[in-house]
Amino acid sequence: MSRRELPRSYARWALSQGINRAVLSVASRRGDPLAELMWSHGTPDYGPLRARGPLHLNPFMAGTVSCAAANEILRSSDFGVGDGQGELPVPLRWLPAKVSSPDALGPVDPPSMLAVDPPLHTRYRKHVSKAFTARRISSMAEMVTAVAGEVLDQIDPRDGQVDIIEEYAAKLPIAVIAELLGVPDSDRPDILRWGDQAAAILDPGLSWRDYTRVEAAMRSLHHWFEDHVRRLRADPGDDLLSALVIAGDLDDIELHALGLLVLAAGFETTVNLLGNAVAALSAHPDQRSLFLGDPSLVGGVVEETLRWDPPVMATVRQAYAPTSVAGVDVPRGTAVAVVLGGANRDPAVFEDPDTYDITRANADQHLSFSAGAHFCLGASLARLEARVGLRMLFERFPDLRVRGEAVRRPTRILRGYATLPVAL
Asked: What is the band of 253 on the pLDDT scale with cuts at 50, 70, 90?
């Protein structure tokens, strides 16, 4: 990073992370349950926040672990992702534009679909949704099965113990996403490394040191996408990104944003889902035995894992108008943390919610793919990859169990394993 860029980068960190870091740190030390939940790196404890009622407001923001309240917020036009910044004081509305850098934009910065509301969100979603139609997803099943088989063939059972994240859970989704984005095989290791480094950008309150690492990874990804889009213009393929390049409806920054979002959402969450499912089945031998005895329960494994240990713990919305949620008044401009992991364990919806049960009849009522306008476009593809990936993994290695020290990723919003050693 150049000396000229350093002050701008620091200003971006201060606005996007530094203020949040100070607020969350202070509120957490004072015992606020929402701040503690958002600040903690350990296993989430939703109980203290649930005890505060369906919606808890502190002086800085609001939060909920109620499934009903979460659904209401995610589907209401009174809430959005805050792309308009209308509630910021004038100086703070001016500063982001002055310090922004197109080659450092992340998946939570406009023009990413995660960071814009309709009608712009609708426009972007229309372009990308063609890649995720039911017919297209169904046609991808054969490819996902073939890729899973190829990856499994590379695992030597004589090794006895392997890291299932590195050797399987990461390789399957990156191969699928590479097909969508036209990523050459030779570039996949770099994309994996940069994507893993950039994943922390979703966390609130990154330190300056962590932020600089994330921003460096984002710059590398943007530079790669710049070259990749140039190659696709000269020699397009039949992938999603080539189709968007040929259509010419999006500028380069928008193409980068959509490509990065497909990469981040399609890779990071699926890796976490596969790893979390393997860990959950290993920790619950009775459920593992049920699955091995009846592989048709793989859909239940996927949905219950999404509910019980979701790949994404929370998302944030901003109130665009004075409103109320679950009988609680919410002032205009209030940021609301929708804690998806907590909503998925709401006892008002899920009986015995802390129990992992792959036969749970209503497990698919979870909110792990969000709801409303921002419902995950790739949900069907993620489910397909997880169903195929888990079924084939346990068919090949029915005795697979976690053995050794499983290490969680250091991220808080994205929940998964950095390493998950298993005995084959």
From this structure: confident
